[in-house]
Specification:
By secondary structure, the protein is an alpha/beta fold. It contains eleven helices and seven strands.
């Protein structure tokens, strides 16, 4: 499939990126012929919109604060066959976009992740703690969902139309990258990864990511996703712990009563049976929610299958069937 035959859109979320957004837009237009670049100005107080418009982008405004809100709006509004998502801070190599798009089409895949790779000769573009935090979060998501995740927090990705239009986008801020990763994992969409250049921000540009604040938000999201996506393991863990504690509390009392006829310690006995009941309820909740999870996944899968694979229109799909 020739990329020039497809509608390719770039989504560039921006908040106060006047120092960098013009170059990002210009690089995308030079790298991918025919691409339409949409810059979403998210409550900027500088000349971000003006610089983007001068560089050739279509500028739209999202007044609700947060990158997740920008992505949610863009995915709902923009109609395209291929979507490129890239930050407007000029930290990613926009000239890697053609390779990522070709990878998507060659699969065909629904999601291509840009894995950040920095030249060893350059000073690290990661802020202190970001690289370590990214590795930790990659490991946590890998353990929870049973899949290897290379760079969960990368803001450089390419999507097919059916990925974008089946993505619920409920996150509000920087947790959006985690939600995108989890969506691809639980739907088990065909996906790949491409190494992309990563560099420090240009002079005059400041990072909006707060290491600890946003890190805890992402951890809270992962915790919530584990509860929704692995309910048997999540609630079963609490249920099993409750059972074990109840056994530890109840067993000595029962032994004392039968062997030496000592009057039971009723408060401890009551606590033990309460924990036993709570453990049973936790396991029951986990099993019920697992059934609901399966129904949600089936509904999400059917929504995903409503759209053709990238580069395949409905008439071609009918010919393939018949």
């Amino acid at each position: 499939m020739d990329p020039t035959e497809l509608r390719i859109a770039a989504v560039v979320p921006c908040h106060n990126e006047e120092a960098a957004v013009g170059k990002v837009v210009a690089d995308l237009l030079a790298a991918v012929p025919g691409i339409v670049v949409y810059v979403y100005d998210n409550r900027s107080t500088d000349a971000t919109a003006e610089r983007a418009r001068e560089a050739g982008a279509i500028v739209r405004t999202e007044t609700t604060k947060g990158k997740g809100n920008v992505v949610r709006r863009a995915f709902a509004d923009i109609e395209a066959d291929v979507y490129v998502m890239i930050d407007g801070d000029d930290t990613y190599d926009a000239f890697a976009a053609p390779i990522m798009i070709q990878t998507l089409l060659a699969g065909p895949y629904d999601h291509v992740l840009g894995v950040r790779k920095q030249a060893t000769s350059e000073e690290s573009a990661y802020r202190p703690g970001h690289e370590t935090g990214n590795r930790v979060l990659n490991g946590v998501v890998g353990k929870v969902f049973g899949e290897n995740v290379e760079d969960m927090l990368s803001g450089y990705r390419v999507f097919s139309r059916r990925f974008v239009k089946s993505f619920p986008a409920v996150s509000r801020e920087f947790e959006i990258e985690t939600e995108l990763t989890v969506h691809s994992l639980h739907l088990r969409v065909p996906q790949s990864a491409v190494q992309v250049g990563f560099r420090d921000r240009p002079a005059g540009s400041e990072s909006k990511l707060r290491t600890y604040h946003d890190g805890f938000k992402i951890l809270a999201l992962i915790f919530g996703l584990a509860r929704h996506e692995r309910p048997v393991a999540f609630y079963g863990l609490f249920g099993t712990i409750s059972w074990l504690i109840s056994v530890i509390l109840i067993t000595p009392i029962v032994v004392e009563f039968y062997e030496i006829h000592q009057v039971p310690r009723f408060p401890t006995l009551f606590l033990g049976f309460t924990l036993l009941l709570l453990g049973s309820l936790a396991w029951t909740a986990g099993l019920i929610l697992d059934g609901i999870r399966r129904s949600r996944h089936e509904a999400a899968r059917l929504m995903y299958l409503r759209y053709s694979a990238v580069g395949v229109d409905s008439s071609e799909r009918i010919r393939q069937v018949y």
